[in-house]
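Hi all, long-time lurker, first post. I run a small reading group and we've been trying to get comfortable going from sequence to structure in the token notation. Rather than ask abstract questions, I figured I'd post a concrete chain and ask someone more experienced to write out its structure so we can walk through it together at our next meeting. Sequence below, copied exactly:
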Amino acid sequence: MAEMRRLERECRIFTRYLTGRVPEDYVGRKYLEAFSTRQQVQLAARGRFDHVLLALAGTHSWLTRITDIYSRFFCSDSVVRRRLVMLLAFIESDAVSVNRLDSPTCGGMAGFVIGMSLRGLVSGLLLLPALLTLLPLQLLLGRGNRPGRVV
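-- Answer (accepted) --
Happy to help. Here is the structure in token form:
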């Protein structure tokens, strides 16, 4: 029961990171179902550092962002990335949630360029504290992740 509550919380935090909102019922149900099937093995942490990443990411959407940015460059097959990719698939297959991802923003080309530049700047700025905190932890705890599987 405690594990289900933790997974529900994780789903809310990860969905908030991906869409800015809480998950629809369908998305939450599908996320929990994934852990009661054979996929559970693929969604499990593969080492001590993976456990740390998952614990941090499941705390707050900002920490999810930091662990995702770090994982993208230094351990792309982390449990956080695998779960985010799975959750993104559920969001994209839900008629209500997909509109949160595919909604156009106003501002034309100039708005697009400014928005993407700001997102890139924020990601770059967050990579520095991620490197300073997570790289030493990864070196201390051991890799435990094979790179290059999840985009």
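A couple of things your group might point at:
The mean pLDDT is 85.
Residues 108-141 form the longest helix (34 residues).
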